[in-house]
Write a structure and sequence with these properties.
The complex is a heterodimer of chains A (247) and B (261).
Chain A lengths: L1 H40 L4 H16 L2 H14 L1 H6 L3 H5 L1 H27 L2 H9 L4 H31 L11 H12 L3 H28 L17 H9 L1
Chain B lengths: L1 H15 L11 E6 L2 E2 L3 E3 L5 E2 L1 H13 L2 E6 L5 H6 L5 E7 L2 H4 L3 E2 L8 E6 L16 E5 L3 H9 L4 E5 L2 H10 L4 E5 H10 L6 E8 L2 H4 L3 E5 L4 H16 L2 H9 L9
Parallel strand pairs in B: 1-5, 1-6, 9-10, 9-11
Antiparallel strand pairs in B: 2-3, 3-4, 6-13, 7-13, 8-11, 8-12
Helix pairs in contact in B: 2-9, 2-10
The chains are: A mainly alpha (247), B alpha/beta (261).
Amino acid sequence: MLELLITYAPKFFDGALMTLKLTFISVSIAALLSLPLAILRRSKNSALQLPIRLFVSFFRGTPLLAQLFLVYYGSGQFRLELTDLGLWWFFRDPLYCALFTFTLNSTAYQIEILRGALQAVSSGEIEAAVAIGMTRRLIYQKIILPHAYRIAFPALGNEVILMLKGGAIASVITLMDLMGRTRQAFSQTFDISVYFWAALFYLLITSAFVVAWRLLERRLTRHIDYHGVNNLPSTSSATMTGLNNAS
Amino acid sequence: MNKHISALALSLLLSVIPFSGVNAAEKTIRIGTEGAYPPFNFFNADGKLAGFDVELAQALCDKMQTKCTFVAQDWDGIIPALLAGKYDVIVASMFITEKRKLKVDFSDPYQKSAMTFVIGKDSTLTDFSPEGMDGKIIGAQGSTTQGDFLNALYPNSDIRLYPTQDAVNLDLISGRIDAQVGDMIPMLDWTKKSTDGNCCTLAGEPITDPKYVGDGVGMALRQEDDELRLKLNEALAAVIADGTYKKINDKFFSVNILTLQ
């Protein structure tokens, strides 16, 4: 079983790199896209809101596998049209197809996460900001977004993990990610322990990510004293939280 | 230690496989096939398994006077599911290779095996040596002899492995891949008989190196099932002798696939 790991370790490593690449590129692009879309999603203008709602319900309501098949094999049926549009180079490449699908899927989820977070920002703070004459832009920058991202942070981390694991289907369009390498190793050895190692690899990646995300979260929320111990803010707001801790 | 981990992993896996009782129904032979490999095995318009493999297996069962049921299983897991006792024999046009023989036993061959390159009709490729295919994209079904062949001999080509043969065909049509390597008979059938296969043509010399194509196509069984294997061999010899094999062969193919003449 260990020999197996040693023989296939370089391939597993390659696969893990592909998995990380797929996940982090797509969730990052999705993070950029989802913020403006989430703000538009909250707009009262239904011409702006409706298309986004349709987009979100489509990508949240259908399996990622089906979406990947649709994009990959679907685009293959329209080669001539796509060539005319100058887009075939993009859809010809399985990596771009996977990134495209995963990005859209993750965007849909992140829009919903951010929408909820934006709604959860307390209206009192926004009113206060308006009262002291902050511009709309400044209110977003200083009040709404820092709050919203703090609220959304755990859910966004969850979305990254889901994407990382959901990405295991990439091998159906020939991308050799961690799961693809595992299946390949399995087909050459028929030894089920390769799946055991693959699970361990996934666990390792997600654990590392969870730790990193938690550290980031702690940094972002360092002014909020969740646990009430050993976490005293050093100077400015010491009086307020310090009082709470005493109780 | 090693053994313990393997045993633990195995028991974890087995605990999620619902056991259907390997010997519970001795009378019925359960046959595993892929169902995605026309014309050998596929689902017909009624949603039933059909094709050369299925009809031949049925003929063997009739010869042995036993009842048979068919189970469809994805190619990737077709040997593990046999070993796990989900069915008793694989009849899915599987090449008899040394590597597979480590895990399963094979019946006598019931088809001759060869592989071939397939390219689009508008393709300009003529040299199918590893040098000639340098930098080209070649597709094949994964977990197959074709995949092993490409991975071993074409390190400088971009090898893409697909879950099913249909998926490889689709991408050859769309031009995502420059060429594919497939089994000779289904490729012959696809390019000559189907409308979408009209895009493409066989190319290069047939690949017959026994290291990759094995010793023909056989039915795979668990290594302890010698009795069933011998019965199947006997029945196979009988259907070849009495012309049943030829009848089924001619229904699907224009060449005799036992000899490829």
